[in-house]
Batch of 2 targets.
Target 1
Amino acid sequence: MKITHLKTNHIPNPLGFAISKPTFSWIVENTSDTVQTAAQVIVSMDSDFAQPLFDSGKVDGTGIDSLAFRPPIQISPRTRYFWKVRVWGETESAESETAWFESAKMDEGWLASWITPDCEDNQLHPILYRQFELPARAVAARAYICGLGLYHFELNGKKVGNEYLTPYCNAYDQWIQYQTFDITDQLTVGANLVSVMLGNGWYKGRYGANGGKVDFYGDRFALLCEIRITLDSGEEIIVVTDSAWQAQPSPVIASDIFDGETYDARISKIVPLPAAAFGVKPIAIDMARLEARRSIPVCINEEIKPIALIHTPAGETVLDMGQNMTGWLRFKTTAPAGTRLHLQFGEVLQGGNFFRANLRTAKAEYFYIADGTVAVVEPYFTFYGFRYVKISGWVGDLNVEDFTGCVVYSQMDTIGEIETSNEKVNQLFKNVMWGQKDNFLDIPTDCPQRDERLGWTGDIQIFSGTACFNMDSYAFLAKYGYDLAKEQTKTGGMVPHIVPMVNLDKGGSTAWGDAATVVPWNVYEFYGDIGILEDQFESMRAWVDYMHSADEASGGKRLWTTGTHFGDWLALDADDPEDRRGGTPPDFIASAFYCYSADLVAKAAAVLGKTAFAEAYGRLSAEVKAAIQQEYFTATGRLAIPTQTGYVLTLFMDLMPEEHRERVTQDLIAKLIKDKTHLRTGFVGTPYFCRVLSKIGANDLAYKLLLNEDFPSWLYAVNMGATTIWERWNSIMPDGALSTANNMNSLNHYAYGSIVEWMYRDMCGLNPSTGEAGSAGFRHARIAPKPDKSMQWAKARYHSAVGLYESGWRTDDAGCLIIEISIPFNASATVVLPNAQLGGVSINGQPLHDAAQIGDSVTLTLGAGCHKIEYLVSETVQ
């Protein structure tokens, strides 16, 4: 037995995060035991646990929950807390290694002050620095720091930490997050030098919707830094930003999220340079906005090498990275002094030549002016979405080995994987995973390359389930939810189209605003920690109350028929091909999500023990459903919205009168067949389509949609060489030309990657269960694989919050279906075997008896362990 994945608030050993109520989680693995018989948690302020702050003692049963255990302790500022856990099974026990978390400054006042370079040019990129002496060895040292727009922090000439693009992207007018770094090992006895280079970013620089706005949150570079050092003598040294700091010009002479960076190596990065130095001055920035960090680190998580050096018909030199990625290029150069190297980034070639018109106004370039020395170069204050890099000004032969693609995204573990007998489907899964990594850079962006890169709420609403299957997303989505709730305080509960909303103060679109309810509910389902619901409940309520207010203002008919909505964005069934909202009336979609979100608030309230709210919002949801049935259904059950998305939403959200479920089911199937079994859906209908088809017994049609290879389909893009998910079903035409050259045509948009949730849930059968108390977070799962004869096998591995689940199936030549399942320690699953007869099923080589025949399926409950199930399907697998 081994205890792993120890986390506080879903972050391993968090330093300086916003933690007022610590929540511990862990996983037990490498054991043949099946259930927890007891557990013990100990918390201490010393690593040897000599004087525990809290000791639960040995608590029998499951009273101590590995998904979310909250020790009853009070947290003090700037304090490290150590904790460990012991778990007992039926026959063995294990003690974890020591984990820790360290609090930030909390409500403690700051000794540091905000400073800014004392120069008139607010575009001059500065290095701010301070020298100080240490009379003895440092035994502990922390830097509490925030730089605006972005900052690069060095101590004694070396970068501090492994994070990039700090202090990240958030609603700066609402809150500013600072980071905490352990700098103990970088300090020396005697002279020390702290230096911070500042550049443009989300706070300052060009960013936002519609090409962005310059300096939306602020127009001056600024720095706040408080360094606290404890010496081995016991003395404390405190270094803070004040008038004693100095500044000098940085070699970064221009930077921008959209446009890139210019670096002049002839300007020394070494400080101090007395001849270039100038002073600093105070700058008024509201200290009340300062909060401890919530953003998880953005790091270089992978590195890839170019696969080809291309000389295009136009005479260009272009590197092909082989993968559409987010980050930048690191390269080695020995160029003579004054050489101006120019790198331009793009997603696709057109006519064999470099192309970037689909980036719109984003220049997405990097200039390096050489100083004649050997240098390894990469940018500081920008990132790019790209596969191809055009290189100009290179002197001498270009060696692809001198170039490395740095893949940059928020530091999250990959926890899910799917593999099938179909290599094109496998590539699709890889494309979805890359799309998630490329767009999960502190906020869930719509795309990483053009003049946008915004936190569109609709995209994450439809993708959050897939996100939680693929990567450990709790902390990432919790931070986004915090920003969303902050923005709602300015809008009366309305959810903006983008979060942070920067310069686009519009919102209130159905399916986009429902990110406020859908995302936290999904996170709860996947992780079983009510903390996300506690944190977001008022935000969830505020969004539903906003819809309710709009309903009341238009007559109180329990329908949402007002406002401006995106509709079924980019669906293919609009009467006008230029209408991006699709053919499903926005009022119907709005009313459907009104009903759905009210129900989610009711469910969240029930989980939180808020009975009155659960009843009120449950009643509201029922009233909206009744109004929908009266408005949109005939007496015989015909839906007045005969679109694919209309039927799909109705069946997914259970909007129809129960007696007409079969009518709606058959009408959807007929509609799909009429549409030649091809998608006509957009952002709203697509995520649920295959899930609904599998639910209603049309599993073969779900597989048909997955496996179609002509437009519109997921595999069309795979066949066209895509390595990520496109924004449009036809972003690239069969002849290789972009369908729209420079108007909203991203080749790295993760939204349609939501098909992967169906692959986990239905193709491979892995589902969280929240139907009974204590089952969320995959403590209890529903495993119901739905094979189809169009594939020979499929399997999924999912490192859930309780441990590793595996679910896979394959068929042999005799028509025997073999299902192999792994369930982690202290978990269980309801398993549904399709097309099975109880008398013909074996499990682990023995006849299965303890199960139920329900229709043409066999249902059983299994505990932890590995289980191999075999049977001849009652019919050819459908």
Target 2
Amino acid sequence: MDPVTAAGLAGAILQFVELGAKVAKRVADFSSAIDGIPRAFKQIRTELPSILDGLKRIQRNIDAGLIDKEAQEALVPVVTGCLAEAEQLDRLLEKALPIAGDSSWERKLKAFKSLAYDKKIEEIAESLDGYTKTLVFHQVIDGFGSVRAEPHQPPPYSDPFWLVPFDRNPSFVGRDEIFADIDQAFTVGEGSQPKAALCGLGGIGKSQVALEYCYRRRNKDDRCSVFWVNAATVARFEESFNRIASECGIITPESAKSDAALLLKNWLEVRHVSPWLMVVDNVDDTDAFFREKMTIGKTPSECIPHCQNGSLLFTTRSRDVAFDVANPEMPITIHELGKIEGLDLVRKRLRGDYPENLIFELLQELEYIPLAITQAIAFMVKRQRTIRQYLEQYRKSDATKAKFLTYEFSDHARPESTLESVAKTWRLSFEFIRDSNRRAADLLCLINFFQHQGIPAILLQDEDEDEDDLDFEEAAALLKAFSFIDENDSVFSTHRLVQLATRWWLEEEVPKDVDRWAFEALKSIASRFPEASSHPEPDYFKLGEILLPHAELILQYQFKATTEDYELVRAKLLASSGRYVHWNGNYDEARARFKQSFEIRRQRLGEKHVDTMASMGLLGWTLAIFDKDLEALSILKRLVENRRQVLGEDDPRTIDSLSDLATAVALTGDYTESEKMQREALARSERILGLRHNDTLNCMGHLAEVLDEQGKPEEAAKILGDVYEIKKDLLGHLHPDVLVSEHNLAFMLSEDEGKTEEAINLYKRNWRHKKEVLGPDHIETLTTACNLIIKLASSDRLAESRELCGQCLAEASNGPNKNNPRSQEWLMEIAGIWQKLAEGGSDGEA
């Protein structure tokens, strides 16, 4: 028999053993849970384990030389036929068996019992039965009667062995610090075995580093033997050990391979006296490496050789596994490529004189992950695309990005010959996590709908259920072990590519779960975003700043089917986040959110529901106070009437809306009616809430505004002074609400010529405090700055006013709010004043 036939038979047996074991387990699980399954299905349940056991024996007999060449040639179509039937059965089970998310087992069982499935199963059962009879006829299971050879004596060590089945990667770049870490780990004391474990995200380059280290080690020490073991499954581990044992002469064609692993272990520990290095690659499945047994009754971990002259280098996706296999050495975590390494990799693999900035654009999109970079380059080369063309296509949408991650390619530099893709590589990890810890899989799905950085733990923890802290920690630890997330002081982050691949996986596994997890994310943020308030708590701004990026992202998500529950939760988040962005000076965005929230709640709950009235109040308030829009009048009139009917005259919310309505009335020029309404609101608030309550103080502030409009500045200034002092006493001098009152008082004082200096000093203090608390480019800060600049100019302090203009523009030019339209308006106003001052002119009060 030619070597190709022998290799094909061994490969077919190996594939059938791996696939057959998986199918047999699924069949057994389903059979134990359901009664009344088809007769042919029961037959398969009985026959599969027998076929698996028989083929394992066949392979052992072949390895021992107990089956002649003619019989082996005859077995090739039999085994490949068994494999084909197993693959067909696996596909059928994928469609027929219940999976997570199905409405009921009964529904799938009914489908399974349908005539079409039953007929297909009978056909598979008949085929497998025929193949089984063929195997029995040839007496394969019991051996072919060849005489066993005398026990083979393993040879003593002579020349070094090079049993690494992969060429060197000509595109390998960098990683010098990793090689230094490996050498450091291999530097051990007398009597200790050198060990190191590389861990990191799938596709990050662990196997590539190990492969490059093998070649460097051979060049450095030509006496060192180097071996490569694939530990992805028990079958592949055993096959690797058998191959090494055969190549080293430890076993012969006439001897049984069943003991090869232990013979190799003993030979390396005792007879191989010179240095050796063994790479144990892909130790990702803890069960396969530490618990599942090989044909000799030992686990792979029990067959790892241990001696001082042998070095072990493991690769694994799991940091936890790395701890276990490398103990007492610490795992060596492989991270993304550095900027220079990424640049070198692209230049090595992609022809063309691309500018560095364009390559860095590509690398940033792909987060410097080697497999993602290689995948993108393979696409560009095959499709004859430039980097710019690739980026334009890639950036079209998240769906497009996810599709690119599924693009399969053959990379001969990787230690596998099958087609690869980022999504396919990570899917293995996703499925392992799902099967190992459901809470961790849920966590990964939830994280998918947040911004990929700055995710606080509170967004990921169950709120409604009494979740054990340890359960959450275990779930997060598993994701960290696989490098899918990082954690720093209870704040998590992930790769954007991991999010895209997770979304693709969800779409493939259970499409309806995409919306389900998006809704879970929406509920998590909505329930934790600080409530809309005119008097925020001390941690309001810090929490809002943390949660806003995640709120922005989930509010953009397009649900496939909207429901009342979804829309009402969204309305809640629109209202609360709208109030926060309003505090940050983005009044236009806030108004848009208040309006959306109001419209959703009015449609779903009616205009007199308390939640609808809350959104209605926010919309009317911002239209009246900040936009000076007469639309506020009709909205607030309805709101006051609704709240009086539902909540009563003296409810604080009714009083608050009455005060806002009075402000809207002032927009019409009817200051007398406005003052009357403000005084009524103030009297009610003081009686119900007290003088020092924030709502009462707000009513006082609104009353002062309408008094000023009627030419009563002294009374207005007295009221604003009281408001400022009480708020400062209650909240502290740096609270944003206090800073607004401080500015209002300065503005009122500036209208009195006798209090110009007092007003200027108060403006200066207010500007300094607002820069400290809100930032130099916040609308509130710029409002104060502009009014101070104008007051200085009108007081003939032109040089000071001009200097202040330059300082304000310089400090605000790079602030976080510089692109806010309202901030831009103020900056243009200040720039215009600066220009007039430079020309020798001045301006009036803002």
